[in-house]
Specification:
Blueprint (H helix, E strand, L loop, with lengths): L7 E6 L8 E6 L4 H11 E3 L5 E3 L1 H11 L1 E5 L4 H4 L4 H8 L5 H8 L9
Antiparallel strand pairs: 1-2, 2-5, 3-4
Helix pairs in contact: 1-2, 1-5
């Protein structure tokens, strides 16, 4: 019923040619209100009523709000300045935008369950 207070630790590869080189990332358990805020970052209604999907805003939010610790220690600004490969590896352990939207809609769009 309540979210887990203990973050989940992941080992993230930082060198695709050497799997022994990694960093550690701790990700918090996502709450109902985290889902709401992430959805607001992902879907933005413009002044003319059109809907815009902003993946960059979503991932910026996810990296700076759900990653609560790293080893080596990185600031939120440094998390946003990672090489593409490292960022992609971290994104694999975070909720994907489509998963957030499914959670937001009661997960009825996931026909495999």
């Amino acid at each position: 019923m309540l979210k887990n207070k203990q973050p989940t630790k992941y080992e993230i590869a930082v060198d695709k040619d050497d799997p022994s080189v990694y960093m550690e990332v701790w990700v918090k358990d996502i709450s109902y209100f985290d889902i709401q805020e992430a959805t607001g970052q992902l879907m933005q209604i413009k002044g003319n009523g059109t809907l815009k999907f902003d993946l960059q805003a979503y991932w910026r939010y996810a990296f700076t709000h759900w990653i609560i610790e790293t080893n080596p220690v990185l600031t939120p600004e440094e998390l946003l300045d990672l090489k593409g490969y490292v960022g992609d590896q971290i994104a694999k352990v975070l909720p994907k935008p489509n998963e957030i939207l499914e959670d937001m809609t009661g997960n009825f769009t996931n026909v495999t369950e």
